[in-house]
Design goal:
By secondary structure, this protein is of the alpha+beta class. It is built from 4 helices and 20 strands. The protein is 33% helix and 33% strand. The strands form 5 sheets. The chain has a 6-stranded antiparallel barrel. The protein has a 4-stranded antiparallel β-sheet with strand order 3-10-8-5, with no helix packed on it. It has a 4-stranded antiparallel β-sheet with strand order 7-6-4-9. The N terminus is likely disordered.
Length: 359
């Protein structure tokens, strides 16, 4: 009886060894995908920022309002800008009058040009007459010199009058152009005080109230298309090289429970976010649900590759990435292909009749 104890223990050990978890490869479909998480966004969704600082005097919209491009959303205190614009307009009006041909300033200068021209013509005629007399030896040399000096003085006076007129005209026209530019700048500054929608869409959020201080660093509202939504998800840098535009994505959202929706990758941002080490990927719904809202959370599995007939084993049976247990202590190398969260494709090293054990 004492010799039967070792035999019993041996049989017990063998029996326990035979109870190890095992399985055999199966042939079936497998899909390899890249996991991504993110949120729903309205197409062309953006945060509205002012280009000037100031107190909000008017809020023209509420959450949910539909707006057109150019529709006013907010007005920022514009009293000082309005006064500057009024002064600029007055300056333009004054300079337009001064630069007109019949303005008092130019009329006086133009009259001076006419007067000096008449005197020049008269002195030129007298000088020419005196020259002819001198050629006939009539009159004195002093008379001729006086006529010449009078002519040259009149010519210089006329040239100076013309120059003064042209300089005044140019100066007034330049001042008018500057004043008009200043008016345009004030018009733009006044318009900047009214914050407008850039697109036809919907106001999804209003983040400031009348009387609060608006700054160029503070968002005032969120605006996006009213009936066109997309998915914005983040893909890890280790997976991004496998993602391409046009790939299918299987999407779930907390708001819709276990409902599986299909989307298509439309755009991949070409730069990585250094803080999260992820890339932003945009996808559009193939058949969007009836009701969507911006910022709904979502998870997506972007389909990289798929195969209908593949020899697969549970992923938990793979040891060290490329080995399986085919006996108590026997390991065998295998070559793997596609992977999903649960199964791995075996390309070489096993067939459907093999028995493998969980490591």
């Amino acid at each position: 009886m004492k010799r039967s104890a070792p035999i019993f223990l041996l049989l017990l050990a063998v029996a326990c060894g035979d109870k190890r978890t095992s399985t055999t490869p199966v042939v079936g479909p497998i899909t390899e995908s890249v996991y991504a998480s993110g949120k729903v966004k309205a197409r062309d969704q953006y945060t509205v920022y002012p280009v000037v600082n100031g107190i909000v005097t008017d809020v023209f919209v509420l959450e949910g309002d539909t707006v057109r491009a150019g529709h006013p959303l907010f007005r920022i205190d514009d009293r000082t800008t309005a006064l500057s614009r009024e002064n600029a307009e007055l300056s333009v009006g004054l300079l337009e009058r001064n630069a007109s041909p019949d303005s008092p300033v130019l009329a006086q200068l133009k009259a001076n040009v006419g007067a000096t021209r008449v005197k020049l013509e008269n002195d030129s005629s007298l000088y020419a007459k005196q020259q002819r007399l001198w050629e006939q030896q009539i009159g004195s040399e002093n008379d001729l010199e006086q006529r010449r000096l009078a002519y040259e003085t009149s010519r210089e006076n006329h040239l100076s009058a013309r120059k003064a007129y042209q300089e005044a005209l140019t100066r007034l026209r330049n001042e008018l152009a500057i004043a008009r530019n200043n008016l345009a700048i004030n018009d733009r500054a006044l318009d900047d005080r009214t914050v407008r929608s850039l697109i036809d869409g919907r106001v999804y959020d209003v983040m400031i109230e009348r009387g609060e201080l608006a700054t160029t660093q503070r968002g005032l509202a969120v605006v996006g298309r009213s009936a066109d939504f997309l998915l914005e998800v983040e893909v890890d840098e280790y997976d991004i090289v496998r993602v391409r535009e046009g790939q299918r994505a299987l999407v779930t959202m907390d708001a819709y429970g276990d409902t599986l929706m299909e989307a298509v990758v439309q755009r991949i941002d070409p730069i990585m976010d250094e803080r999260s080490r992820t890339f932003t990927v945009e996808a559009t719904f193939v058949d969007p649900p009836a009701l969507l809202f911006p910022n709904l959370t979502c998870e997506a599995n972007i389909v990289v590759r798929t195969k209908d007939q593949a020899l697969t084993i549970p992923a938990s049976y793979l040891a060290d990435g490329d080995e399986v247990l085919v006996g108590r202590n026997e390991r065998r190398k295998v070559r793997v292909g596609l992977r999903d969260l649960e199964r791995v494709e075996v390309l070489e090293g096993l067939d459907s009749t093999a028995t493998i054990y969980q490591p």
